[in-house]
Task: inverse folding
């Protein structure tokens, strides 16, 4: 049953409706227009599903991949692949699953060859063959937009999703806002794929304007669980004051203090060495280890990496320039929505997750996947989730359109108490930045600082849950504030529970690795956050 009464729309999207709302139905709704969302849409359409894709921005230009030049983890089957999996596994903190990695590499291998057969312009290697291990972000996402449209997918750009719909047993679609017309939309669907990206906690990095953890919040409201959220402390070298978090050129960098004294990175993690130095004073970098032929290669292959230097009139190979570390959160981190099977199901019937929205622990463990593995993960997980969502919708048959549905969103939309005008979404997002971006709170962690941060974040959550409401375009910012706060609380509660240091989770008060914690931690709940081990036992220290 579909309730089309205006009052129902006011419940689904709070506020006055000035134009006729948009109502659509589909077999599969994909939320998010990055590579994972694009591949999910193509896979679902290939399986015969009617697909709608909604994007917070514009499919083809929004998200972290579009402005990037990224590699892929592209390894042929055989002994070489097994060796690559074993080699990477030794660096991931014991949390990876070789079977999952092999599946991902299989899917990426086949799909990248398919991409080449479609005519994607891969670069040509020295032997005159397409080099399938490189994807130039703008070209790649422009190409994928055309493939999605060619597959018959209905694409709604600038249509951020605000909340999911449920029928009491399963997820049944989503509700959101058409920003350009200031009208609500509702898509009723047999299944939903969340490909909403990760969460950068409000940091200024390339493509992260839409990476506010929206999918995590919507999934949790439907009953899903997060996994690996403590592994959300990935930071990137960035020329100051730019937002350019591109790591490749730093392979040829040296780092120095303000007085020119070198920062030693021999035998240790470079990011940790630079972070320690930044807490003491300014840090500078220079690509002085790059030979002339490497310099030319970098300028050809990574031209946007040099724009900040060109604007400042600096030769980055011959001169020092100021450097900072910017938080990439779960965009390049690990944590996300827990996956419960090989098809990227979330444990909530009808709801699937892919790309940065899903936890990557089985792939990358406690360390960042970087560009290549994460890119291949987006391809594989998007394809798996799209096919699985199409199959779920097909099993529903004609029942999908007849289900009575209700909106599942709460924080920022439907306060539990009286609405108050003084509860400001922008101020709440500012608190998240203050607690999640500083090196001495998130990069380096201690129980005392984690608890102090959680005191503020919990207070923000209580305020917004009880009193924050918004209408129209402001509802998008209200939901972003709620998602940022919820994601931060899951991250720091999980960080408290992991009483050790492992990978990017660096506890200064617990510097050693604890073999007993070689397991995933799952975080659930919104008002009351609970963290348990993957085996269901309580963590070593209850947060």
Result:
């Amino acid at each position: 049953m579909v309730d089309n009464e205006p009052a129902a729309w006011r419940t689904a999207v709070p506020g006055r409706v000035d134009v006729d709302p948009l109502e659509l139905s589909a077999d599969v709704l994909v939320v998010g227009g990055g590579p994972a969302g694009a591949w999910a849409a193509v896979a679902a359409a290939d399986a015969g599903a009617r697909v709608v894709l909604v994007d917070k921005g514009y499919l083809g230009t929004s998200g972290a991949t579009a402005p990037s030049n990224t590699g892929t983890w592209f390894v042929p089957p055989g002994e070489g692949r097994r060796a690559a999996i074993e080699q990477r596994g030794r660096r991931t903190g014991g949390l990876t699953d070789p079977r999952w990695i092999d599946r991902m590499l299989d899917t990426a291998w086949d799909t990248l060859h398919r991409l080449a057969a479609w005519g994607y312009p891969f670069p040509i290697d020295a032997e005159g063959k397409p080099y399938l291990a490189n994807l130039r972000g703008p070209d790649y996402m422009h190409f994928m937009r055309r493939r999605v449209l060619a597959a018959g997918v209905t694409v709604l750009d600038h249509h951020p999703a605000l909340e999911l719909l449920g029928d009491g047993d399963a997820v049944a679609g989503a509700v959101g806002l058409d920003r350009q017309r200031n009208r609500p939309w509702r898509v009723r669907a047999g299944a939903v794929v969340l490909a909403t990206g990760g969460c950068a906690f409000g940091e200024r990095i390339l493509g992260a304007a839409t990476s506010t953890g929206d999918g995590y919040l919507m999934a949790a409201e439907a009953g899903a669980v997060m996994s690996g959220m403590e592994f959300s402390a990935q930071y990137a070298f960035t020329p100051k004051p730019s937002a350019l978090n591109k790591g490749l050129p730093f392979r040829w960098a040296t780092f120095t203090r303000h007085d020119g004294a070198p920062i030693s990175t021999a035998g240790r993690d470079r990011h940790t060495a630079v972070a320690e130095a930044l807490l003491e004073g300014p840090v500078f970098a220079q690509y002085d280890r790059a030979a002339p032929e490497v310099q030319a290669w970098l300028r050809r292959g990574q031209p946007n990496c040099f724009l900040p230097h060109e604007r400042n009139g600096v030769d980055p190979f011959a001169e020092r320039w100021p450097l900072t570390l910017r938080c990439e959160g779960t965009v390049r981190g690990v944590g996300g929505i827990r996956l419960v099977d090989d098809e990227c199901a979330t444990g909530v019937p009808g709801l699937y997750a892919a790309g940065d929205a899903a936890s990557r622990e089985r792939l990358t463990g406690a360390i960042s996947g970087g560009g290549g593995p994460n890119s291949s993960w987006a391809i594989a997980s998007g394809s798996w989730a799209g096919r699985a969502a199409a199959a779920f919708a097909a099993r529903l048959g004609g029942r999908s359109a007849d289900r009575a549905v209700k909106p599942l969103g709460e924080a920022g939309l439907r306060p539990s108490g009286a609405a108050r005008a003084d509860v400001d979404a922008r101020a709440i997002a500012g608190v998240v930045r203050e607690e999640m971006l500083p090196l001495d709170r998130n990069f380096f962690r201690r129980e005392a600082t984690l608890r102090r941060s959680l005191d503020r974040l919990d207070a923000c959550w209580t305020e917004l849950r009880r009193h924050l409401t918004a209408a129209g375009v402001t509802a998008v910012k209200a939901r972003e504030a709620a998602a940022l706060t919820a994601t931060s609380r899951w991250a720091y509660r999980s960080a408290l529970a992991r009483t050790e240091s492992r990978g990017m989770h660096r506890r200064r008060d617990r510097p050693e690795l604890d073999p007993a914690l070689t397991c995933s931690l799952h975080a659930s709940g919104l008002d009351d956050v609970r963290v348990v081990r993957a085996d269901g036992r309580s963590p070593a220290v209850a947060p």
